[in-house]
Structure formats: structure tokens, C-alpha cells
Design brief:
This protein is an alpha+beta fold. The chain is built from four helices and six strands, in the order βααβββββαα.
Amino acid sequence: MAAIFSMEITVGPESIDMLKHVNNREYLRWMEEAAIAHAASLGWTTEVYLKRHEAWVVREHWIEYLRPTFLGDKLTMYTWVQNVSGSRSLRRYALVKGNRVVSCGATEWAYIDFVNGCAKDVPQDVIESFTYVAPDDERLEALGIDRCVRFEPSCI
């Protein structure tokens, strides 16, 4: 079980905009893909959530673009869950090229019962499946992704 999940990305032509660098929307897409892949690696696939009639939905995204990326770049997206409180969870991301962080971000996710559309507390079995990574965790420093993130939702 990886507390800090990583996903390799090679920038393809579909990600390039008219300025010949990666379009900003791609960073958000990669964040979502990494979050879904991380959960699935722990057994929480889309199919499992659907059977439970539960789902995570985005409440808020935050992205900081630090350096541009280009066609053919080899990137690593890291993601980890910082905490869970009630129906919400804060997930962090760092996108790295070589040994430099090119983007960092966060998503505040809300757990819902999708039959009635209402938020619900994250079930205990879901909570126990993830290892939580504090902002000062030494594993982040070891990976070179311990950059100070300015986003902090007010409700968690």
C-alpha cells in the first residue's frame, strides 16, 4: 500500500496548446487520473464505489503552475491523502520533471451517497484503507516534493 502514489506520464500531442506547451487543463486531468488510480490500487475501484452507491465528488481544486512542460516530457505525478474529516478529504499532488516540481495542487473531495445526492461521513473501511501523509512527512522531503503548499481549505 503506497501512502504516496506515483504515476508516470509522457506528454503527448493531445496535451499541447497553441503556445506549444502543456495546456493547463491537462494538469487537472492528470491529478484526477492519479487520485482514481491511487484509490484503485488500494481496492477502491469505480466499480466498488458504484456497488456501494457511494462516490467521491470534487468540492474544490487548487493548482499552482511553477514551470512549463512540453511535448515528450517524462513526468511523475505524486499524490497522497493528507486527511479525512467527516465527509471530506484533502488530497495533495506534486508533478515532477526530473528532480524539479513543475506543478503542485490539492483537491478537497466530498464523499456522497449518490442515490440521494447527499454528503455522508467517509465510512470507516474507506478511512482505514489509506495511509495519511502530513505536510511535514519526511517521505515528501525524500522525494523532493515537500514544497510548501499555500492551499488549505477552511472546513477540514
